[in-house]
Hints:
The complex is a heterotrimer. Chain A is built from 19 helices and 21 strands. By secondary structure, chain A is α/β, with parallel strands linked by helices. Chain A has 4 domains: 184 residues, Pyruvate-ferredoxin oxidoreductase, PFOR, domain III (Pyruvate-ferredoxin Oxidoreductase, domain 3, 3-Layer(aba) Sandwich), CATH 3.40.920.10; 182 residues, Rossmann fold, CATH 3.40.50.970; 64 residues, no CATH class; 124 residues, Rossmann fold. In chain A, the strands form 3 sheets. Chain A has an 8-stranded mixed β-sheet. Chain A has a 7-stranded mixed β-sheet with strand order 9-8-10-11-13-12-19, with helices on both faces. Chain A is globular, with a radius of gyration of 26 Å. Chain B has a single domain, classed as Thiamin diphosphate (ThDP)-binding fold, Pyr/PP domains (Rossmann fold), CATH 3.40.50.970. In chain B, 31% of the residues lie in helices and 17% in strands. Chain B has 9 helices and 11 strands. Chain C is 61% helix and 2% strand. The two termini of chain C are 34 Å apart. Chains in contact: A-B, B-C. Chains A and B meet through helix 1, strand 7, helix 7, helix 9 and helix 10 of A and strand 1, strand 2, helix 2, helix 4 and helix 9 of B. Chain C: This is Ferritin-like diiron domain-containing protein. Chain C: InterPro entries: Ferritin-like, Ferritin-like_diiron, Ferritin-like_SF, Rr_diiron-bd_dom. Chain C: Pfam families: Rubrerythrin.
Amino acid sequence: MRKDLVFGxxxxxxxxxxxxxxSLLQAAAAEGYHGVMTKSFGSQIRGGESSxxxxxxxxxxxxxxxxxxxxxxxxxEDFLKFGAELPVSGNTVVIYEAxxxxxxxxxxxxxxxxxxxxxxxxxEMAKSTAGTERAKNTVVLGLIAGWFGIGAVAVMKGIRxxxxxxxxxxxxxxxxxxxxxxxxxxxxxxxxxxNVVASxxxxxxxxxxxxxxxxxxxxxxxxxxxxxxxxxxxSTEIMQFFTDHVWKYGGAVLQAxxxxxxxxxxxxxxxxxxxxxxxxxGPGLSLKSEMMGLASIAELxxxxxxxxxxxxxxxLPTKTEQSDxxxxxxxxxGDVIRPVLxxxxxxxxxxxxxxxxNIAEYYQTPVIVLSDQEIASRKETLDPIDTTQFKxxxxxxxxxxxxxxxxxxxQTENHISPISHPGMLGGTYLASGIEHVESGAPTNSGSVHQxxxxxxxxxxxxxxxxxxxxxxYGNPDAPIAMVAWGSVAGVCREALDMxxxxxxxxxxxxxxxxxxxxxxxxNDFFASVQKGLVIEQTHLAQTFKLLRMHIDLPKGLKxxxxxxxxxxxxxxxxxxxxxxxxxxxxxxxxKLQPQE
Amino acid sequence: xxxxxxCDYQAKDYKSDLKPIWCPGxxxxxxxxxxxxxxxxxxxxxxxxxxxxxxxxxxxxPGYTTAYGFNSVHGRSLPIAQGIKLANPxxxxxxxxxxxxxxxxxxxxxAHLIRRNMDITYIVMDNQIYGLTKGQLSPTSQxxxxxxxxxxxxxxxxxxxxxxxxxxxxxxxxxASPTDLAGMASIIEEAIRYPGFAFVxxxxxxxxxxxxAQQIKGLKAIQETLASLGHNPADRLAAMDLAxxxxxxxxxxxxxxxxxxxxxxxxxxxxRQALLSKDALPKERILDLFIKK
Amino acid sequence: MNTQGINFFNLxxxxxxxxxxxxxxxxxxxxxxxAAQMDQHRTPDAATFFRxxxxxxxxxxxxxxxxxxxxxxxxPRNVTRAMIFDVEAPDYDAARAFMSPRQAMEAALLSExxxxxxxxxxxxxxxxxxxxxxxxELRDEELAHxxxxxxxxxxxxxxxxxxxxxxxxxxAAQ
Lengths: 596, 293, 174
């Protein structure tokens, strides 16, 4: 019996493999399992290769998993296009379409001998039971129910609900296809049983959503009443969420004519006193940089979500990467600190998005939420979140006394000045991108510029003491360490658990606040560290370099960095940790040698 | 609240203490006077007005008023103005800037504001030159114009701001000039009162880099009020016909005012908000949207 | 010069006085703006002259207002500023960076001539005797103003004939 299974399925878009993944995830949730699903596509709008990965577990899931336990290939050409995204190992059961006419001992997987390989006449079964090959995905779901014990009832319940409007006939056809798949599995049992143990939380309420929808929901919870944006993959669903919901809360959404107008309108809405946001992906972030600078100098709260994809330029629009870190921290000219936060999962996208609004409002600043394609579009099953535990902050408004002689950019002890908005009597001022004195009047004085830069940067000092924006996992005094953020953090958490189980003395730092760099938090963390890895999906090791720019890193801290679309696997990280340990032991042995 | 208030305001109530940086003799001095007068006629208190601009000599203008001003970045007054209007539809929202700001770097925004028909008044101080950066070719410079970036004469036709906005379907298009301040003030007032997007092109001479023919004497020589031509501002085709003479003639007045103004974007937003508000989950239960049973 | 909606034929004395006051107000305001522009652009001599003109116009305006009040009390005005433009006020582009006092005075002189022409041109259409008398007086007043400005001009040293453009810095790009 298994507690955790990773399915990877690929076919062409017409095979409906992603739709099957959705059904599987929902069935798993209904049966009380935790689940994570990621999707990956070729570049065609329709009919290109598509794949999904569904991980199901009785325990909470930190990432979409490493090597597949179950691989489903509706055709090999499509499956192979996903390469490292769907890694098959010696422990994988491979199920594939018999109509490919490839013998089980000749499947095109190089350098690996799967646990078991089964050819199934999936298309033929679909045709004979449902009358159409299109029902292949339902046959696959039947096979999964039969072999792995997931969704025997719940899958068809879900399909029934989905197709209810289209008539009983279609539901019945699917039922026959499903039953045929299940029967095939029963008739051909696996060599090693891989049934998943029943979940103890069956029937409990579960949420299912992806990072983009979660981000939109968190924003509305935070009180965001304006979204300005422009469609761009993979962030567009955030705008879609707003167009579905924000009106209900008296807010508005503007699908603008371009990325600049999108953020511009959000800047305007913030100036007018409303919480506002925009969302984009890499190329859009580049376009928005001037407006981000404007929001910084005009000290206007604003949340900018950047769902990272492979870059530069168009790059890899449908694949994940962490290479926008430099752009998030540094884009827009001038001396600017702009906080950058990063969620690590769909679940914590709620908290981090809310935190972004709180920081934006409190510090009167643009804040970037650096999500990534994986978090944004992967679906997770979640336990309900008690939203009442979260605090919502609002920008500080001038008091009646402040308005007697109102200065919008007044120097205060914490460098944060009460902010008025149009409509407020006594609060009129000129917001501007040009340098200004305390009243807001333009200036080109060097000394005022120096003072205002001081104000605009020093106000962030307390942010660097926010230890709650960092989590340390593992043994706090460990000599071996990892640092990882965003979707890579989840992989590292799993690697950490594996390494701890293997007896390694190791720890992991997950920063949710990437910028400004909280020197104190890192220095505390690195105090015990002799060897370590900064693990990230950027070719240039941007995280490592950003840290090195601010902190005297331990000599033994190295970078483990690679380009996006090449996911890290927990196993390879554990191997790297073992390597660090042996280096550490060798250096200790070296030190023990008697000196001349 | 409508665009018109009841309080009694004087032009001076809209004048701030900031001293304009414009060159002596700049047409923009008259435009800001025209705006003070129009605002006084409308009578909205300054704190209920948001005045947005981009970058350029003329974009300094919000700071010279007592309204809430936003002197933003080059070419982006309109997106910001739209965000303000959507966030708080009760505000009187003005946008202003130069011809480069509006028709070059920010040229893409006008068409979209027009099709959204937000109740925003956009004033372009058109001087056919880039003044702030010292006299380069602008999008409304005449073909053949010699400037420091067109030593041998410009090779491009100018944009026609009047035809441009009329063609995109703006509900209110007018032109004014410092040769008639009272006329300018009343045109701006009428533009603000128009319920929807209103565009006012103001020929505002650049004394430093402008050509002789574009100075006030030159403008007076080619000006004609549309009223004196018997133009009917409800006639959009006639307006487009007259607008073709931009650059040769200075037609002052209202080219087009939609006699039946359609609902503004803000009206439609309010309608939608009212319709959907009953479907709102309490915010603390927003995540119930994701419950799968 | 622009006069909209004024029917000189029917103009009452009160309206004529009010109009004259508005003309002075406008000129006073414009000279005030010019003085401020000159201050802001470090041209103090021209600023001083424009302020002198502000005082002159204000003084004349006050005199007219006193007559109006004496004759008609605070009866509501029928005429508005929208009916006149640039009658006695210099054109907006009459101001120039680095104006010499001579240039400032010449600009003012042109305006006074413009005002004179305005009143002179209106005279033939005026029916009311009292109004005609007032306009004649105003026309002559403008001549007096011209004299005043010419007197100031005469006090100036002879023009060197050099152009400012030969000396001043180029405009600064922003």
